[in-house]
Amino acid sequence: NAGVTQTPKFQVLKTGQSMTLQCAQDMNHNSMYWYRQDPGMGLRLIYYSASEGTTDKGEVPNGYNVSRLNKREFSLRLESAAPSQTSVYFCASSGIGQMETQYFGPGTRLLVL
Amino acid sequence: ILNVEQSPQSLHVQEGDSTNFTCSFPSSNFYALHWYRWETAKSPEALFVMTLNGDEKKKGRISATLNTKEGYSYLYIKGSQPEDSATYLCAFNTGGFKTIFGAGTRLFVKA
């Protein structure tokens, strides 16, 4: 039981390049989330998927797209990376119910030059 | 814009000290308050979720209280140990799928 897994762990991009961050969970959770974490700030929600087949914008969605491929997988795509997207990205999942505890992946550290 | 504030930003204590941190959140539209523990180079892990005014939760030496009317929660650690060194996050939920996280309190416990 791996919980929430993310790939890659670390990535360096040049401005304008694109990439997809992958996330998968094996806890049969309905809801999945993407956050970014920047120094001195709390985790900020980029996008979430309340259930398979749905996605919604969070607090900071600009410059990102997501795909809920199936119940297990939720990917985050940067179409044209910018230095402002340098951050640590965390994927999380939770069960049914909006007060449910979220379970986090190990994070992807992204550097955009 | 909903805001969750945590204080202090960081805290240095000696092994054996007891300590506490504060999480402040909007008192309106309250649904749930979560505390997470985040060790360096790891992912945040859940400590508590509280939903009712006056809730108190305890796990070992760590406990938390909730006051939804005035919009704050306290996290207490009794007899801090070096392994308690971590960032403690609180997160506020208004009933939707969007959870607002505070920036955290970073605790350093010196042996």
Element string of chain B (H = helix, E = strand): EEEEEEEEEEE
Structural class by SSE content of chain A: mainly beta
Major sheet of chain A, described briefly?
A: 7 strands, mixed
User: What is the element string of chain A, with H for helices and E for strands?
Assistant: EEEEEEEEEEE
β-strand percent of chain A reads over 45%
Task: Outline the structure in words.
The complex is a heterodimer of chains A (113) and B (111). In chain A, a hairpin with an 8-residue loop joins strand 9 and strand 10. Chain A contains no helices and eleven strands. With 113 residues, chain A is mostly beta strands. The N and C termini of chain B lie far apart (41 Å). Chain B is an all-beta fold. In chain B, the strands form two sheets. In chain B, strands 2, 4, 5, 9, 10 and 11 form a six-stranded mixed beta sheet that branches. A five-stranded antiparallel beta sheet of chain B has the order 1-3-8-7-6, with no helix packed on it. At the A-B interface, strand 4, strand 5 and strand 10 of A face strand 5, strand 9 and strand 10 of B.
Draw up the topology in text.
The complex is a heterodimer of chains A (113) and B (111).
Chain A: E1 4-7, E2 10-13, E3 19-25, E4 31-37, E5 44-49, E6 56-57, E7 64-68, E8 74-78, E9 87-94, E10 103-104, E11 108-112
Parallel strand pairs in A: 2-11
Antiparallel strand pairs in A: 1-3, 3-8, 4-5, 4-9, 5-6, 7-8, 9-10, 9-11
Chain B: E1 5-7, E2 10-14, E3 19-24, E4 32-38, E5 45-50, E6 56-59, E7 62-67, E8 72-77, E9 86-93, E10 99-101, E11 105-110
